């Protein structure tokens, strides 16, 4: 067991109609002029944005709005948001939407609170020393950005998708109303469930430090999301299932399921980020498409964890050798992905990279992780290329 820091400063307001509390929360955290940042328009169509602006109008809180954060959010809009905040004297950011709008808001917050080019942080050249305070109204359970220290931005030039992590970026509050996720397309719900499980699995398949209590939390979370993802496939308006998944999404990426271990593997995420950058695929679907190939590539190196996962999460029979049990667990996970209409390879994901593009992705991925990375198994550029090739 390793020493650890657990820091989750985000105030969570969970339940029906909780978005009505937004003005009080902004005041509580000192906001007087707000930038409401959102995505491609789902919050306009659902009426949520209007409800939020009405609430701020009634409370006498000034605001400006900036929509347009696309999935795999772009640096260009971040620059626009930074300029707008400076021009308007914004002192509080409200991200309304999914991980893309929230991550874009975090990047804007870094850009306003720090001098120089905000991309420097995502390019690992400098570290932030502050961030404008951020609040969140979440509309999709997926990334956990509502409580996480991470923000993932794509630079249009060269299609470079990079994550940056800092405690300064953790939101001050997160409003989690499961009802707001009921307008999601089924595909996005399934992508979200996949991402939530992957945030826990990245921390689970490690070589060291694992604690019994962390494993129990992780395995319980994985079983819960697996069960409720199937319920939502058949009954998308099921409030209790929406709620289970939404809370799991926050817990999966606020650090809880990594306490005591070595920090996690994270290579499935890194490999997916190249797919998201180059082909603009939905993050969760990209993860599902790569995970099985990654797992088969690394499992022998991390056999006890894969066996434990197979037995305790996928509930495969305790029969055969450790290797057979581990492989049965990987297959069961892929069957689960298929059952919620997630892809299990690149073809099913709908992308068909050329050999040149596979080489480019492996190269960019290796650069992005500083050469090599992984805990279940350390992967270098050649290993990354092998996995991309095998996931075709
Ligand atoms: O853009 P709008 O119109 O809002 O539509 C979105 C988008 O098309 C739609 N949507 C969201 N809520 C909806 C809805 N449609 C109808 N009803 C609703 N209630 O769903 C689509 C996906 O939204 P997006 O915000 O892109 O999804 P997600 O939350 O999965 O975010 C993905 C991004 O987050 C990054 C990913 O790489 C990707 O760029 N990640 C961020 C992390 C973090 N900050 O901690 C960690 C993750 O591992 C991940 O890398
Ligand atoms: Zn993720």
Tell me what you see in this structure.
The structure is a single chain. The protein is an alpha/beta fold. It has 16 helices and 8 strands. It has a 6-stranded parallel sheet with strand order 1-8-5-4-2-3, with helices on both faces. It has a two-stranded antiparallel ribbon with strand order 6-7. α8 (212-234) packs antiparallel against α9 and α15 crosses α16 (381-390). It is globular. The two termini are 37 Å apart. The structure holds 5,6-dihydroxy-NADP and zinc ion (ZN).
CATH superfamily of the largest domain: Dehydroquinate synthase-like - alpha domain
CATH class bucket of the largest domain: Mainly Alpha
Q: Which molecules are bound in this entry?
A: 5,6-dihydroxy-NADP, zinc ion
Average pLDDT value? 97
Oligomer: single chain
Specify the number of helices: 16
**How many discrete domains?**
2
How would you describe the shape?
globular
Secondary structure: number of strands: 8
Q: Quick one: biggest sheet?
A: 6 strands, parallel
Q: What Rg, in angstroms, do the CA atoms define?
A: 20 Å
Euclidean distance between termini CA atoms = 37 Å
SSE pattern: EHEHHEHEHHEEEEHHHHHHHHHH
Uncertain stretches: none
CATH third-level topology of the largest domain: Dehydroquinate synthase-like, alpha domain
Structural class: alpha/beta
CATH architecture of the largest domain: Up-down Bundle
Helical content class: 40-55%
**Widest beta sheet: strand line-up:** 1-8-5-4-2-3
Strand coverage percent: 5-15%
